[in-house]
Amino acid sequence: MGKHSKPVDCSMCNGTGKQTYNVDNKTEQRNCPGCHGTGKV
Ligand SMILES: [Zn+2]
């Protein structure tokens, strides 16, 4: 259900396609696992 409706912003990354991690006082960006970096689901 919902997979074939219009794409919406990914809730895990708010549509950015990236997730930010803080590692040893540095910020790392990785592709969001929820939308694989597309920002849409
Ligand atoms: Zn996402």
TrEMBL record:
Domain of life: Bacteria
InterPro entries the UniProt entry points to: HSP_DnaJ_Cys-rich_dom_sf (IPR036410)
Protein name: Molecular chaperone DnaJ
Native species: Actinomadura meridiana
Organismal lineage: Bacteria, Bacillati, Actinomycetota, Actinomycetes, Streptosporangiales
